[in-house]
Amino acid sequence: MCMEDEIRRGTLLNGAWIKKVPSYYSPAQAVQFLECMNLDLGLGEEEIAKGTAPTSQEALTRIVERFLITFPWENTQMHYSAEHLMDVSPEGLFNRMVVEKKGGSYCIGLNGLLLGMLRALGYRAYCSIAKANYGPIGGPLDYVPPTHRIIFVQPQAHSNQTYLVDTGHGFGLSTPILLSNEEDNTVQSLNSFEKLRLTRTPHPSSSLESSPGSEASTEIKWNLEAYQKKKDSLGSDWRVLYSFSEEEFHEEDFEAASFLISKRPVLRGLFWHHVVCTKNFVVPEEERTLHSRASANGTVMHAAKRCIDSSWLVGK
């Protein structure tokens, strides 16, 4: 539990506003993107070009849902291309995912495409980077290097209310979540058996304190946490999926991070050692039950009881 002055209720530090930033995608590409996702927002190329397209939290939610259903979370390009490198450049992502429809990407590519398209559609948004936690439920935090791309969005035209958006975590957020660590701010995961929340805690490795000997850290981080079942136990607990700040990162930062993932066996390197793929799809109401089945290369898990279902494949 945070002290009252540490509670954030949907805004960035000091109530900061996100500026409108030109997109690296054109209005024509934005229209093609919406068509690729079979999403009709009632927007044409001319309206998008004029910058008069309306934005809203409701439309943002629809964009995120269709994005999750259309583009898989996968790293096949890293293993089955001559370069063994994920192309996360804006044009490379657009050509692969929208024009050629060859598949998806991992977080850097997925959220890179989404950031550019949100900006093209008039949304105020920017990217930051997170550290994924590989520690067990109830155990100490065990972070890998910061390589996970996330997006902050302020969807309302005259509001600084901010949402965290992340389409690149496999079994992560199924919808935008308000940037708030109030206890009732929870959303459903892409799994039927998890819910997600945001918390704010001192960084465990921080060298900073508010005054000499105070041990009061001045470095407070955000955490996305999942409520998960403990192994060999009837109990459940919250587990940190990843931690992040509100600092902005740019394309050159993410291209460097992607090169690291593709070319070096980063600690517990999931993408280095495995071919992974998650494909989301809509589940009819009558079929929303939890089940799983084995595949030749790993395990395919179908997690239902919700609007979006996920298939998860790991190959060695």
Topology (elements, then pairings):
Elements: H1 27-36, H2 45-50, H3 57-70, E1 73-74, H4 76-79, H5 90-99, H6 107-120, E2 124-132, E3 148-154, E4 163-165, E5 177-178, E6 186-188, E7 195-202, E8 220-229, E9 236-244, H7 251-263, H8 270-273, E10 275-282, E11 291-294, E12 299-302, E13 308-315
Question: Can you describe this structure?
Answer:
The chain is α+β, with helices and mostly antiparallel strands and 316 residues long. It has one domain (4-272): Arylamine N-acetyltransferase fold. It is built from eight helices and 13 strands. The protein has helices at residues 27-36, 45-50, 57-70, 76-79, 90-99, 107-120, 251-263, 270-273, and strands spanning 73-74, 124-132, 148-154, 163-165, 177-178, 186-188, 195-202, 220-229, 236-244, 275-282, 291-294, 299-302, 308-315. The strands form three sheets. Strands 5-4-3-2-9-8-7-6 form an eight-stranded antiparallel β-sheet, covered by helices on one side. A three-stranded antiparallel β-sheet has the order 1-10-13. The protein is globular and about 60 Å long. Residues 289-308 have low confidence and may be disordered.
> Quick one: overall form?
globular
Q: What's the CATH class label?
A: Alpha Beta
Helix content class: 10-25%
Radius of gyration: 19 Å
Unreliable spans: 289-308
Number of spatially distinct domains: 1
Distance between the termini: 41 Å
CATH architecture: 2-Layer Sandwich
Number of helices: 8
Mean pLDDT: 86
| Helix vs. strand class | alpha+beta
CATH topology: Arylamine N-acetyltransferase fold
Q: In this structure, how is the largest beta sheet organized?
A: 8 strands, antiparallel
How many runs of DSSP E, i.e. beta strands? 13
* Beta-strand content: 15-25%
GO molecular function: acetyltransferase activity
Family: Belongs to the arylamine N-acetyltransferase family.
Organism: Cyclocybe aegerita (Black poplar mushroom)
Protein name: Arylamine N-acetyltransferase
